[in-house]
Amino acid sequence: MAREAGTRALLDAWAVGDPDEVLRLRDLLTGLGRRSFGMLLFLATLPAFIPIPIGGAVSGPLVILIGAQLLGGMRRPWLPKFLAERGPHRHALASFDRRISPLLAWLEKLVRPRLTWLLAHRAASMFTGLLLILLGVLLSLPIPLTNYLFGVLLLLFAFALLERDGALMLVAWVAGTIAVAVFGVLSGNLAAIGAQWLGGLF
User: Fold this and answer.
1) Half-sphere exposure of 64 (CA within 13 A, CB side)
2) At a CB cut-off of 8 Å and minimum separation 6, what does 43 contact?
3) 0.90 exceeded by the pTM?
4) Which of 7, 30, 44, 151 lies most in the core, judged by the most C-beta atoms within 10 Å?
């Protein structure tokens, strides 16, 4: 989110038009500059809120891809062509907006640019990327009743990146580390699973 164009304002604008039109990711990210990673993460999290098991299987690999690029120090997200030319339908964005509108409204009141120096460090991007990779792996796994939990947690990361909110990122780091520790143990050998996912992506 940024003051000149908040996330809800963007969702409202994108929802206007043919409900069956596919909004390509490369078009949605155009002109967002340094906000691109945050917006891509926001969009990647969307399927996790769809009340079907496959939602995490869609969001998870996208989150892993974003995390790997942050870990690698990239300044702008890269998408393979087959992903860049795809994206959500307008009606899916409108439905998503309605479903989590109260959460988005609360987040937009909470976040603002602060502790921006923290996010400027390469180490911060790398740590964020590492946590996103691990959370993406967990989201991809069939762990019952966790899609919404991981979805909300990933929204914290997305809004922190969008608004350059270092304080919110600190909260996301703590919550993300706890989630990885708890659900990583419950789901078995997380490191081995993560290595397999990364090997498949690259």
Assistant:
1) 23
2) 25, 28, 87, 88
3) no
4) 44
Kind and range of the H or E run holding 72:
none
Three-class DSSP category at 165 = strand
Task: Determine how many CB atoms are found less than 10 A away from the CB of residue 117.
Answer: 10
- Spell out the residues 6+ positions from residue 65 whose beta carbon is closer than 8 angstroms to its own: 79, 136, 201
User: What is the tens place of the pLDDT at every residue in 84-94?
Assistant: 777 777 777 77
- Domain positions in the chain are 7-201
Per-residue b or e along 130-161, where b marks 16 or more CB atoms closer than 10 Å to that residue's CB: bbbbbbbbbbbbeeeebbebbbbbbbbbbbbb
Point out the least confidently predicted range of 7-21, 33-47, 73-87.
7-21
Q: What is the DSSP letter of 47?
A: G
Residue carrying the six token digits 């997380």: 190
